[in-house]
Specification:
The chain is α/β, with parallel strands linked by helices. It has helices at 17-28, 59-68, 86-105, 142-159, 183-193, 214-226, 244-255, 282-288, 296-313, and strands spanning 8-12, 32-37, 48-51, 71-76, 112-118, 164-170, 172-174, 200-202, 208-209, 211-213, 232-236, 242-243, 262-264. The chain has a domain at 3-171 and 214-237 and 278-293: Rossmann fold (3-Layer(aba) Sandwich). 39% of the residues lie in helices and 18% in strands. The strands form four sheets. The chain has a seven-stranded parallel sheet with strand order 3-2-1-4-5-6-11, sandwiched between helices. It has a two-stranded parallel ribbon with strand order 7-10. Strand 4 (71-76), helix 3 and strand 5 (112-118) form a beta-alpha-beta unit. The longest helix has 20 residues, at 86-105. 46% of the residues are buried.
C-alpha cells in the first residue's frame, strides 16, 4: 500500500516505549507516520520524526504543525512514569492533553484522536471482578488521578462535538522495549546483574494484575484509529489477572537463572497499583474487532531478549 493512499498518522510520544510500537503498527499498515517528541530516537525510527515540546508549544502552533502534516489520526502515547514527580505527572497527563485537545479542535479537517489512558483510572475494585467501562472511576494514586483528568478532558470534548476521539484504558504493559523502571524491568536488571551461583533476593507483592503485550496494544490503537466510534472508553488488556509470582517465574525462566537461586524476602513492598486488576475486554472485541494475541510467556521472553540485546549494544 503506497503512502499516497493513506493519510498521515501523528504519534505524540512516538519515540517512547508505547509510541515506537504504535508507529511500527501504522507503518506496517501503509500509513505515513510522524513521530512527535522532544528528543530523536536512539535507533533508526519506524517513522518520520519531528522535534516538538508539547508542553512548551502553543495549541495554535501544534495545530498548525498537524495541519501542515495533514495528520488525519493523532495518537497520544505521551505519559509519565510512576516515578515522576507530582508536577511532572500533572504536566504530562493533564496540561499536555488540554493543549492537544485545544489544538485539534481548531483544525478544520478534525483529525481523529486516540488517547491512551490507564486501567488505574478506575482505582481499586473487588478481587475477582473484571472491570468494565461503566465502572465509576475512583483512582487511589496520583498517577491514576492525573490520567483520569486527561481522559475526561478528551471525553468531554468529544461528547461536546469539539473533536473526534476515543480513549483506550490500558492495563499493565510488557514486552520488548519495556522501561527498566517497571516491575519487570527492575527484576530483569537484578537478574542480569546477578553473580553466577549467588542467590537473587526479591520482595514480591501479594497481587494479581492484568498484563498485556505492547504489540497487542499497538494493534488496538491501530484499530481505534480506523473505527468511527467517538466519545467513549474502551478497555485494552489480556482480560485475566496473573499473580506477580507467576509473572516472576516466567521472567526467571527466560533469564536462565536457576529458580532455586531466586529467594523471596519478607518485608514491605511499595505498591504502585491495586492488588487486583483485571479488565473486561468484551467491548474491545465488539467495537474494534480486537483480541489479545501474544501469550504472556512469549511477551516476557521477548522483553528479556530485547533488553539483553540493548545491553550488548550500549
Amino acid at each position: 500500500m503506497s503512502s499516497a493512499k493513506k493519510p498521515c498518522v501523528a504519534v505524540i510520544g512516538g519515540t517512547g516505549f508505547l509510541g515506537r510500537h504504535v508507529c511500527a503498527a501504522f507503518t506496517r499498515r501503509g500509513y505515513r507516520v510522524l513521530a512527535v517528541g522532544r528528543k530523536p530516537p536512539r535507533e533508526a525510527p519506524e517513522a518520520e520524526f519531528i522535534s516538538l515540546d508539547m508542553l512548551g508549544t502553543s495549541a495554535e502552533l501544534i495545530g498548525e504543525v498537524l495541519a501542515v502534516a495533514d495528520a488525519r489520526v493523532v495518537v497520544n502515547a505521551a505519559t509519565d512514569s510512576w516515578s515522576g514527580t507530582d508536577a511532572q505527572m500533572a504536566r504530562s497527563h493533564v496540561q499536555l492533553v488540554e493543549t492537544l485537545v485545544e489544538a485539534l479542535a481548531g483544525i478544520p479537517q478534525r483529525p481523529r484522536l486516540v488517547h491512551l489512558g490507564s486501567v488505574h483510572e478506575y482505582g481499586e475494585f473487588p478481587p475477582g471482578l473484571s472491570v468494565a467501562e461503566d465502572w465509576p472511576p475512583a483512582p487511589a494514586t496520583l498517577y491514576g488521578r492525573t490520567k483520569l483528568a486527561g481522559s475526561r478532558t478528551v471525553l468531554d470534548a468529544a461528547q461536546a462535538g469539539r473533536i473526534d476521539a476515543l480513549v483506550l484504558r490500558i492495563t499493565n504493559v510488557c514486552g520488548p522495549g519495556a522501561p527498566r523502571a517497571t516491575f519487570l524491568g527492575k527484576v530483569a536488571t537484578l537478574l542480569r546483574r546477578a553473580t553466577p551461583g549467588e542467590p537473587v533476593r526479591l520482595t514480591i507483592a501479594e497481587a494479581r494484575r492484568d498484563f498485556i503485550d505492547v504489540r497487542d496494544v499497538a494493534d488496538a490503537v491501530l484499530r481505534a484509529g480506523e473505527c468511527s466510534l467517538t466519545g467513549e472508553t474502551v478497555n485494552i488488556g489480556q482480560g485475566s489477572a496473573v499473580s506477580l509470582r507467576d509473572v516472576l517465574g516466567l521472567l526467571v525462566s527466560a533469564s536462565g537463572v536457576p529458580p532455586h537461586l531466586v529467594q523471596e524476602l519478607d518485608g514491605p513492598v511499595r505498591r504502585n497499583g491495586a492488588d487486583w486488576t483485571q479488565a473486561d475486554i468484551r467491548r474491545a472485541r465488539e467495537v474494534l474487532g480486537w483480541s489479545p494475541r501474544v501469550p504472556l510467556a512469549r511477551s516476557i521472553g521477548d522483553q528479556w531478549a530485547a533488553a539483553a540485546e540493548e545491553n550488548q549494544n550500549l
